[in-house]
Amino acid sequence: MSKLPSPRLTWRDDGSPVSSDFGDIYFSVEDGLAETRHVFLEGNHLPDAWSGAHHFTIGETGFGTGLNFLSTWALWRETAQPHQHLHYVSVEGFPLSKAELARALAKWPELEALSAQLCARYPEPVRGTHLLHLADNVHLTLLEDDALPALRNFSGQIDAWFLDGFSPSANPDMWSSDLFGELARLSHVGTSFATFTVAGAVRRGLADAGFDAQKIKGHGRKREMLAGIFKGGAPHKEMRPWFQIPTPAPSLGSVAVLGAGIAGMSTARALRQHGFEVTLFDAQGIGAGASGNPAGLIMPRLAADESADGRLHAAAYLHTERFLSQRDDPDIFHATGVLQLARTKEEAGRFETISTLAHLPDDHMQFLSPQQVTAQAGLPTKFPALLFPKAGVVYPKPLLEWLIADAEFQIAEIATLTHSDSGWLLLDRDGRRFGPFDQVVLANGTGMTAFNEVAHLPVEPIQGQVSLAPAGALPPLAYALSAGSYAISLPDGRTLFGATYTRTGDALPTEPTRAAHQRNIAALGEGLPFLMAPLTRLDPASLEGRVAYRAQVPDRIPFAGPAPDHAAYLSSYDRLRHGDRFADYPPAPCHAGLFVIGGLGARGFSTSFLLADLLAAEMGGAPLPLGQDLLDAVHPARFIIRALRKNA
Ligand code: SAM
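Above: inputs. Below: predicted complex with S-adenosylmethionine.
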């Protein structure tokens, strides 16, 4: 289940929250801010510790009200240079709701400007990883889950720890030796830590995990606290070395991104935000492929189980919705709400299961009975529906123009990539050379497998034709509709609907056909019978349309990550053919500095932004915005590993 336990709070007269579950306070009322500064900031030698670092990462156990986070941000704002980035990773198993967070933070007027920004972006609680990009190059990663599984599932390297679970006597789970083992796994030699407690068990547990824990002067009436650094611990055995992400180069450099569709553009944006120097290449121009339709849907593709596929889509959708709603431009993203209508009894049952699994917070999904659909959307239907009230319609052209901003862009059809000590050289069809670049990202959809390095990826082009009904031909729709195919009322009165799903083999025709329009009409009428009458009046010969090719992989889960060296994988992990999971395997052999993002199918607009942030984090050494289970699910080497396991 994705629902997390809500904290049971009582509120003191002075406005501060107390946990009834743990019988402890979130912060001290008289001087919580001063205590935070003394214990966690000074205890970790901040701001000195982050001075000069391009990226600095703090890990916290217990996000609570976000007071520690906001005091850190305030100090960062005063002391960091414009090119520096702060990553703040915080675990929370009982997240406050947005309203509770705002109420608790109202106690600190000096943090008002920052708490307003945090509250605006703070997600309603749901299990998983939530990455929030805030001002001042501050990136908050909330790991919403019980602390131990959350840390076990997390990948990143922490420079300073704030250990702030409730008191060890009230909450031993936050101070267990297993948890300290995870802190050690995520630390490097010299990672600092600080905590308010001096409990003997905590001191011993930290020492056993490899931390040098010293008692130092505590805040106010508290005589002592603990602080120290990680000296190194027992080496960590990698359970799935084939999915390990290569250690990034210490300095950020130049990156070539191939493909100016949504995958490439969102990757270029994420890399630039991270501090990389990016050049974008495309043979035809911006949004020439599948990302060039007049409109698209941003909505989650949920599963009626706990599979990685459905959880990835839920996480990606929430991330995208946060990113696009922050931009607040209805010409780019219009949160019309999307109504997904069941077409059969079986589908109705699946929708009901999906709504109970709660992969999305309540304010993002409602299960509507047929009567509610009719009352709310004015649509007659026999079956229930899922309403995604914050989902909606994206307009690719202005979106891509916004994403490219002033990035370096080259129209060139890159034909070969060559790697040498100086980096990657790119050669185009006309013999022009570009580079060298330190790293390359292939984001060119179905064209990717033309490069030898990634020819093994099982990417298949699937033709999709959309149809456009003239203004007035179909009734205006209150919500964007999805029922097998989709229908969107465009601002100019036309209706966009479709799309076909056709394998065309090696021929990749791009002219819309009358037969495909006819198929779109039939499919929409089947999914949305109330549109049947106006649909039958449409003349397929008079419809406009557009044909593009989606890149699809057999498991339908997109991929993003380092490009595996196929031959080296086969020889390194040959023993997997014999079911030997625990042989002494070498680290993942990937092409140095080569990354891929693709297989986005029909949902590129909903999944690209999270995958792009993942790539930027992998390439730049930042905390990864996906848990290990989902990282494995999107890893480009999964196809090779699966084939080895099947001894195929
Ligand atoms: N750092 C917070 C702040 O600035 O407001 C205060 C943290 S409060 C003292 C401790 C937090 O740890 C609470 O928010 C609580 O819900 C969380 N917590 C307690 N046990 C947990 C567990 N097992 N897993 C994850 N979080 C837990």
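The pocket of S-adenosylmethionine is lined by residues 7, 26-27, 62-68, 91-94, 146-147, 164-166, 171, 173-174 (CB under 6 Å).
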